[in-house]
């Protein structure tokens, strides 16, 4: 037993000695009481409590961070669904087109720039229609398929219908009509006055037009088939002229290949001259072959044609609306009272019926005809019959 032990407890002599470092720092309490031998061990008392980690999911509810991620994804999906629904609805919704109108997509023009033009005109129901259409066209690669031209925009049309229209190339076709019996100058002026035509030869005269067509040896008169031509906006004037010239040549070639025998023409162009005279002499379809027969027989017999329309053409600006004796005595290449044979060029644009008549004349005996004053003519086989008809149908004739 060791004297001076305050607790009076016995300590075995064989017990290992404890150093000061091994003793807990709080071996003596502030109250003066000795440490409780039954207190936790040193290791237990100095080990900090474990951190408060989140428990693994028990399969019933995700941890907070995962719940936040799932919520964000759900919100994103809802937003995408709403945008997709609006996207689809706007592309299928009618545009703000109050009355039928047109819009022109120029060659080389960017699609977005064209859409800006529609926006400026207030043709979209809202800005989203314009942007959705732009996005759809770009990602569907429709912009590579659209064609330039002028398109009709109908009331009730949707953005997708407009895009389909641009891809179809179904542009507005304008009409230009060349009339049978017109002179080239009239036809050319009509083309030049058309605002839908691109004027590349605006200052060209008849000779320059034919050079542009690659046919400088021909007169422009009679070389263009009178018909109604349909064309997209901004078609060049030379394109229309070439189309009309090609149509004339095809018809003339077809009629020439099936022509009657023993005609006094050595080329299709000479037959075209005759067709132009027939066109100006009568508007009655039944008379065309009869008039052709009269002129063909005259040529075969060496008689002069004595046709007033050719004389009038030769007078040009000097013609005052009436044929005078002085006019019949004025020598021009087209005065068939003074010159034998056909005039040097056609005198107008002949139609197909007149071309056919020139190459398929009737086989009667008439050598003369005079107007009855009602658009038809009186035909006569002899000069005596003709003079009687003139006295009957021409007031003041002697």
Short description, anyone?
The protein is mainly alpha-helical and 398 residues long. The chain has helices at residues 42-46, 64-92, 111-120, 127-139, 159-168, 184-193, 206-212, 237-257, 268-281, 288-301, 308-315, 325-328, 352-359, 383-393, and strands at residues 101-105, 149-153, 173-177, 197-198, 228-232, 235-236, 368-371, 377-380.
Shape: rod-shaped
- As a whole number of angstroms, the C-alpha radius of gyration is 52 Å
Strand residue content: 5-15%
End-to-end separation in angstroms reads 184 Å
pLDDT averaged over residues? 86
Please explain how this structure is put together:
This protein has helices spanning 42-46, 64-92, 111-120, 127-139, 159-168, 184-193, 206-212, 237-257, 268-281, 288-301, 308-315, 325-328, 352-359, 383-393; strands spanning 101-105, 149-153, 173-177, 197-198, 228-232, 235-236, 368-371, 377-380. By secondary structure, it is mostly helical. Among the domains are: 92-168, 2-Layer Sandwich (Dna Ligase, domain 1); 173-364, no CATH class. Strands 1-2 form a two-stranded antiparallel sheet. The radius of gyration is 52 Å and the shape is rod-shaped. The relative contact order is 0.07. Mean pLDDT is 86; it is low at 1-45 and 53-57.
Give short descriptive properties of this protein.
single chain; disordered N terminus; two-stranded antiparallel ribbon; two-stranded antiparallel sheet; 8 strands; mainly alpha; 14 helices; 398 residues; Dna Ligase, domain 1; 41% helix; rod-shaped
């Amino acid at each position: 037993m060791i004297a001076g032990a305050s607790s009076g407890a016995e300590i075995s002599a064989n017990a290992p000695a404890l150093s000061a470092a091994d003793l807990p720092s709080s071996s003596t309490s502030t109250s003066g009481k000795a440490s409780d031998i039954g207190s936790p061990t040193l290791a237990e008392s100095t080990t900090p409590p474990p951190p408060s980690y989140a428990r693994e999911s028990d399969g019933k509810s995700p941890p907070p961070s995962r719940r936040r991620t799932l919520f964000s994804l759900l919100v994103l999906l809802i937003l995408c669904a709403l945008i997709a629904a609006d996207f689809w609805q706007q592309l299928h919704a009618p545009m703000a087109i109050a009355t039928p109108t047109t819009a022109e997509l120029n060659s080389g023009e960017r699609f977005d720039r064209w859409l800006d033009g529609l926006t400026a005109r207030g043709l979209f129901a809202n800005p989203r229609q314009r942007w959705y259409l732009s996005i759809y066209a770009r990602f569907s690669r429709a912009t590579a398929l659209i064609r330039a031209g002028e398109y009709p925009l109908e009331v009730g049309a949707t953005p997708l219908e407009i895009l389909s229209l641009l891809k179809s190339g179904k542009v507005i076709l304008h009409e230009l009509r060349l009339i049978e019996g017109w002179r080239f100058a009239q036809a050319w002026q009509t083309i030049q006055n058309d605002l839908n035509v691109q004027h590349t030869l605006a200052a060209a005269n008849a000779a320059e037009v034919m050079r542009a067509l690659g046919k400088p040896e021909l007169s422009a008169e009679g070389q263009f088939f009178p018909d109604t031509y349909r064309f997209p906006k901004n078609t060049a004037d030379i394109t229309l002229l070439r189309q009309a010239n090609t149509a004339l040549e095809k018809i003339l070639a077809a009629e020439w290949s099936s022509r009657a025998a023993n005609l006094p023409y050595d080329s299709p162009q000479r037959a075209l001259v005759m067709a132009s005279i027939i066109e100006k002499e009568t508007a009655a379809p039944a008379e065309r072959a009869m008039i052709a027969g009269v002129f063909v027989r005259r040529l075969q017999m060496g008689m002069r044609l004595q046709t007033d329309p050719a004389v009038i053409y030769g007078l040009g600006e000097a013609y005052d609306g009436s044929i005078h004796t002085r006019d019949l005595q004025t020598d021009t290449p087209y005065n068939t009272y003074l010159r034998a044979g056909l005039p040097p060029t056609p005198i107008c644009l002949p139609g197909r019926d007149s071309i056919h008549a020139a190459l398929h004349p009737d086989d009667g005996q008439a050598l003369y005809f005079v107007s009855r004053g009602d658009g038809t003519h009186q035909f006569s086989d002899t000069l005596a019959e003709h003079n009687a008809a003139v006295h009957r149908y021409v007031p003041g004739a002697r």
